[in-house]
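User: Okay, second chain of the day. Same drill as before: sequence in, structure tokens out.
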Amino acid sequence: MVVILLGSSFGISGIQAEISGRQDPGVTIQTMVAKIKTLPLEPYGDVFQASTSLLEFVRSLDRADREALDPEVIDEIASLVDREDIRVRSDAESALADIGPPALRAVGALLRALRLADERYRRSLEADEHMRAFVGSGWNIILGQPEQVTINDALMRLGVCVPQGNAATAYNVCDYLIR
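Assistant: Same drill. Structure tokens below.
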């Protein structure tokens, strides 16, 4: 029996999910996703803790349970990649990668997320003179673009993206899929 409790220590009003051999983990995931969607971004710790708990719960499932998740459950997780909070998006992307082949149905959402992350990064470069100085110097590779890294990792782990040519950095290995 696994008990997931998000409680008062994080200010989250009660998600308690008790999983036994009889209960479908998908129900717990759907409850957790619904809670994440209702939490305000502030205070930040609540939504962060909820999305981290979702990721940890998915990772706690054995392979058979992850592969048996209903498509609707995977779609619910995939819906989080469009959320405003970067941590929620990142945790959802990682959860999809951890689910494995059944999460291939979320590739469209991951590619949209990659395209948006790339656009946000490019806009931030245009707006920030100091960041523009890093581009071409190699520092942007060291600093990375965490959104692209997480999304690319998910796409690679799902077998959708294979690094091409000189795309050797974690932030741009799947760019050929969105160009």
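The radius of gyration is 17 Å.

User: Thanks, on to the next one.
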